[in-house]
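From the pipeline queue, job 12 of 40. The input is one protein chain; the requested action is below.

Action: predict structure.
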Amino acid sequence: MKSNIKELFSGCLTIPNLLSVIRIALIPVFGVLYYNGDIMWAVVVLFVSGLTDFFDGKIARKFNQISALGKMLDPVADKLTQITIAIVLYLTFRGSADATIKAFSWVFLVFLIKEAVMVVGGAIMIAFGLKPCAAEMPGKIATFVFYAVMIVIIAFGPDIGLFKAFVLPNWLMIALVCISVLLTLVAFGSYIPDVVRQIKERKSGK
């Protein structure tokens, strides 16, 4: 366990890791702004969070600042952010006066459950000396689409939209969220082969 922790924090003082820490710090800021009704600033914070997610990987690869902590911290920051967004939108949709929106609120639980499983699963893997899987292309695409769709919903969604002059019709909002859910499930499935491979290698003593 000590050697795993030492390896995890080796070379951890990097700009990408700082960006991941900033993204985690922005989570409660987003939540407070959203529930105080400062929707515009909540959207801005969410947009900045998405930018940190985009640039930390770019910087890490370009300047060779990839670290073991970064490989864990980046997905954890993503997942905590997505869990927070899923919770606040679930509660918002659940309290809507529109029957269609209220009935559709359950879909945000899919995001919540998936991200919770990833966080707990990653912690268990680290505890057993396994390496949490790095984000592959399906995961990166799913994360980008999630951020984009959620920003659009918060800005233009029924009942909660920042811009009242243009409100998304229910069918379009539902379609966008369903696309994001589908990509999220595909991304989740893409991690399974690597987890299985590591478990098999561990059992075989490699």
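Job complete. The mean pLDDT is 81.
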